Amino acid sequence: MDHGRLHHFTQKEGAWCSALWVALSGDNEPSALADKQTRFGDAQFFDQLPQTVQVELVESRA
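and the corresponding structure tokens:
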């Protein structure tokens, strides 16, 4: 998760946040936020997600 906020990474700086993050659909911020809301609801932290979603995310990163 992105702890409830979208981070914007440039290719030059790379990902500087160590939180587990997932790609969101959309080609602009409003679309990405809509995808986040649809997929994860109001969760801001990983432990706020249903256990089934937590497992899916961990397995997708393996």
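(Above: one complete record from the training split.) The helical segments are 29-40, 51-61.
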